[in-house]
Amino acid sequence: MLINGTEDLRVQKTIDAIQKTFEDMICEMDYEKITVKELCERARINKKTFYRYYSVLDDLLAELQGVMIEEYLERVKNYRIPEDLDKINREFFLYSAEKGSVYEKITCSGNYRYIRGRMISNVMDSTWKSSTWLGLLESSRQKILLHFIQTSTVEMYSKWVADGKKIPLEEMIKISNQLLCTGVNGFVECNAPI
């Protein structure tokens, strides 16, 4: 349940406790292992209280996912596709780096593949639907292009996180933009040993 500030202070504190505990648990364990019972014990609420605000854990996860999607879409809403793909990719990396370990777990862990897929589809639908250029491509070519962009971007981010973010963020953005926007040939040209 998203709070809008008009709720009673106790309600706000309860929802905050549920959300914070849920985020902590996502960082500690796979989603399938999270139970309402343990979440309630950790948040120091009873199960009835949880069910007053959420029907199931999936609702809580969907809410978290929705917030993340909306925040990111707000950042890229003025960019044009495909002309600003480099800027959109940059925003993806900056946003991802700001969100911390919960976002990293959802974005990088194989256990969240389905959830991540829904998030990516929502973002891609929102950003690419206004592209007249994309509309000129036949459907099968659209799907291949979108799949390439989605998987390439997320996989580069995931690899960067898995490697301990050893490459500085700005350099990682540059590398990912080179690969995403100019392909391997552009990357090789810019990174060839002298």
Automatic annotation (TrEMBL):
Q: Where is the HTH tetR-type domain?
A: 12-72
Q: Which UniProt keywords apply?
A: DNA-binding
Which InterPro entries does the record cross-reference, listed alphabetically? Homeodomain-like_sf, HTH-type_Tx_Regulator, HTH_TetR
What residues are annotated to bind DNA? 35-54
An MF annotation (GO) of this entry: DNA binding
Name of the protein in its database record: TetR/AcrR family transcriptional regulator
Upper lineage is: Bacteria, Bacillati, Bacillota, Clostridia, Lachnospirales
